[in-house]
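Researcher: Re-running this chain for the archive, since the previous output was lost when a drive failed. Same request as before.
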Amino acid sequence: APKCPRIENVAEASPDTPLVVVVHGTFSCAVHVAVRIGEVRPDLQVARFEHDTFLSITENIRALTEELQRLAVLGQRKVLLIAHSRGGLVACQVAARLRSSHPAMKVRVWTLGTPHWGTPLASLGGGLAQGMGALYRLCARQRDGAFYATYAEGAASYLTSVGQMPRGISVMSEGSDFLDMHRLLAEGLDLKTWGAEYDIASDSGLGHGLLLSTAVSEMFDGRLNDLVVPTQSAILDHSASLQSCNHFQYFDHATFYSALTSMSFT
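Model: Regenerated structure tokens:
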């Protein structure tokens, strides 16, 4: 965590050095991704926006907007928001607000696995949610003869086991008024979106292929998906990049870091 400060602890700004802000997804944190980005691009300043994803998404948007407005006053002029899942909704809305309030600040947004058009998981409730939670818990991979799950997968297990979705999650339901407004405000942003198709054949996890293939296919009505977000829902622009992975593996792919290495603010 000391290698990548929270954005509220960033006290200095630069008109020349780009600031990368990592915006995590549901029930997660940004430390791991922020550290990795800092290792790949040590020439960039990296910070993380840690926030409660169960709160209203407007509260998250306001908090990050205020921090970047503070840095804009201090002279920050170049910002790249790298956001996973729900975090991409926050990042796009923040960029849209800064476009109006601080036009001198150049803000780019990269979203990975963000449900720009929603996800059916956000509408789960009652017995169906608990059933999907059980599947996620059983969806452990095998490493050196032992079963394990990542923190993100554990979070998905918890989230889908609750009877009623928190308001910060239900906003991602397909057809929600927020998402209709979100896509309108995202038009004209300097935006790159990343989507994924989950491929059972290439997954080393025992549980993913055996337990989730049928359940996910039915839940998504046969649409391509990354186990959490429909593939087409994650794509909002023509520069989209498609990966073969599940929702929790976007930052494991070399293609993302290749794009990050070649990225410039010129």
